[in-house]
Amino acid sequence: MYDIVGTGTVLTSCVAFWLFNKFLDDNSEPVKVPEKYSGYTKCKWRNVMGSILHAVLVSMVGYYCVFRSPEYMSERVTTHTTLGEVNICITIGYLVYDAFDLIRFQGVYSTWPILTHHCCLYLLGFGCIMYHQQLVAYALMGSMIETNSIFLHGRQLLLMYGFSKDSLVYSINNAFNIFTYITFRLIGGSIMLLVFLPADYDKMSSFWFVVFTLAILTLVVINVILFYRLIRSDFIAKDYRSSNIMLSPKQAEKTAIKET
Looking at residue 130, what is its pLDDT? Predict the structure, then answer.
């Protein structure tokens, strides 16, 4: 893909996601904004909506590219297609816009894990396109990992709309979320880091091997941290609250003091 086409696709993606967010800002229909997020915090709600849209789009295109061109899995360094590169450019455009939106409305301190994730993916995607149209397969595998983001951000959306963690809808989404998180983010990321990269060491320069190793390693570490937070929020904290229901107020107070 020529540089001008890739740059144009990135800019188009940025503008498209900006227009999508602007549409959500300016219209309460057909998607109703949760009452709690109708004010300044509306940016958090539309950020989740944009993340789900991106995850659905790039993961589906990623699957299509790999199934249409299975050589992506056998010749991971040299295989590339125009659609695969367009998919990467769409992701880069989304990440650039989303990072700007997060910093503008939520700040760096509260969103640093997501910003670090975006920077690693941006570096990865940028490298794939600029490095002689090589290593596109790794970025497409990253796109398929976004399958989990559909359920991960779906979890946030359900909580925003007031669904209880004990509700059937939340429980079903939670089951898919945990399964896809382990399958794609933890296992998939580890396979890329420990199996694919060492196998492709002789086919790429030492510089890009180090860059990709550090980028994927950073993503795996962040995903482990976020997975712990997820388990703590949905299971450990839930069990703690359930156990306190069975205690008298005085016993519950003593338990809370011990926990602190």
Answer: 64
